[in-house]
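Entries read chain and fold; for instance:
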Amino acid sequence: MFRDARWPVVAAVAAALWLAPLSAEEGMWTFDNLPVQQLQQKYGFTPTQQWLDHVRLSSVRLNDGGSGSFVSPRGLLLTNHHVALGQLQKNSTAERDYVRDGFYAATLEQELKSPDLEVNVLVSMENVTARVVAAVKDAKTPEQEFAARRAAIAEIERESLQKTGLRSDVVTLYQGGEYWLYRYKKYTDVRLVFAPEQQIAFFGGDPDNFTYPRFDLDLALFRVYENGKPLETQNYLKWNPRGAAEGELVFVSGHPGSTQRLSTVAQLEYERDVLEPLILKLLRHRIAVLREYSAGGAEQARQASGRIFSLENSRKAYEGRLRGLMDKNVMDKKRREEEEFRAKVLANPEWRKLYGGAWEAIAESVKKAATRVKENYYYNLDSQLAALAANIVQYVAEIKKPDGERLDGYRESQLESLRLRMFSPAPIYPGMEISRLAGALEMALAEMGPNDPFVKIVLEGRTPKEAARALVEGTKLSDPAFRRKLVEGGEAAVAASDDPMIVLARKLDPMRRELIKWTEDNVTSVRQRAGEQLGKARFAVYGKSVYPDATFTLRLSYGQVKGYPMNGTVAPPVTTLYGLYDRAYSFGLKGPWALPPRWLEMRPKLDLQTPLNFVTTNDIIGGNSGSPVINRNGEIVGLIFDGNIESLVGDFVYEEETNRAVAVHTAAMTEALRQIYRADRILKELLGR
């Protein structure tokens, strides 16, 4: 689950947008192409350019997966507890478990530095489609196009980085119909300010995940620092302690991760029949491995809790995706949409010549992808140490190449972020590494067989547990100083290293590169060429009235606070603190429905009528977690943390009647900070006092 101007979005822009037959609230819109006519017609509201710029510059992306927003002029950043979970865990120890017990910095000096968190703010957007298209116009094959496109993108990013100093990413939109250069202000001094106990942030646990009604206080607060001091900014969302009301127009500004609403039917069938079942099998196995490790004691359980949470969340999401793809109505709808689109293209001789072969090309690429899909997933060691070794081996080789010929992730524009992760001081737990690595090898052995070249290289005649133990206990890669020394020593140091993880990474590197090259030549390059054709065809048929698939870049969705039909009754638009205590006591304060001690102790102090969670018709997806819910005045009235179970098919289709975004109400956040956590310093800052 981002120009300062002082005038409304001009009428010329609005006139350029004609409406496609979308559901009223459907769409994760880029900030350059909003459905302003729809907004004005339904809600009587047209955002000004000043409003849009302010929202964009107040919105942030957390690069370990999530969204957030500035909520004070001193760099206070609001996101979800589950988005902050990784940083909470990296700051925790056996003696101080901030995930379980929560955290509050009563003073500025007590705010905790995050080991490896990068925060991005989108400061500008530039359409570079013409430049990318020009770079590939003389290419004769998909492979040549792929190489030329990659080189052009690397050059654009490098030039922008050198000129501006800003993180510069070329973003592919509309399957390649457009390319945009997004420039981000990057912050890496990000400190933890507040987080509640996970028991209240994730009240109801996995049984209640992706459901509604919900009763979660899923929030966390960081502070962004610049030059060692709290960031001073005029771009923040004013805190509205009253929160959102039923029927109110609200916006969600965040970074949805990925959707496949523009994918072809062939791609969706591949997802349904091949990819989703494989991923679910992998997720379930990894969860089982970590649960077994957790059973070893309280410290093992603490170490594994965050990763189990993430895997369980992914499992439930993929189960929902697969249910959607198995739904005949969903697939029939996608087929009708494709048939209509394809018929319009084929009916026009020029379009037919330019774009008519795209569907078959994608279908062929899907067939080829299926032949090596297991290698792409089972040739994964599920180990931080192994991943670091692979990064180091590839890094020293890639940086010697021309920028445009490097593997993705190693371009000049990407290196600073990569180094932040490679040299992170966050703890790595050897016991958990051994369990994860052994589990991955057991699955690779079972799925690929003992004679598979990858399996033979890693095992060398050992059992998975023996190999995992030898690799983890023999490596020095847990030490960030050792990793840095290897990287600074370059190819010579890496080639001379006898560290077992580095030795293994060197052996596997040719195999990994061959698989990457095969995938680029047979799948990625074909899909990019065909995707661009379909993107252009879509513009030719429908204009810019459509929105692009999600790409973990900033989007704006609009909707209203609204309940929905559910289980033969109606789900309410809001839940309250009354409901929280009712659900807790209904389960006898046991399991995932237990309450932290202070929530029981302070219950008499609370106004139980306070709204806690609410649902909206906003169109969101994974990556939107932590996104602010904003009213028409540009004030924050809620915090996205989930979707309902009916929304899990939202990767492929949006169903307005039942698809709902689930958010924490600012009234509940205000009440809890005041009465439960006594976080007066933060509350005053949020309320501008």
Notes: The two ends are 31 Å apart (CA to CA). The first helix runs from residue 11 to 16. The longest strand covers residues 178-187.
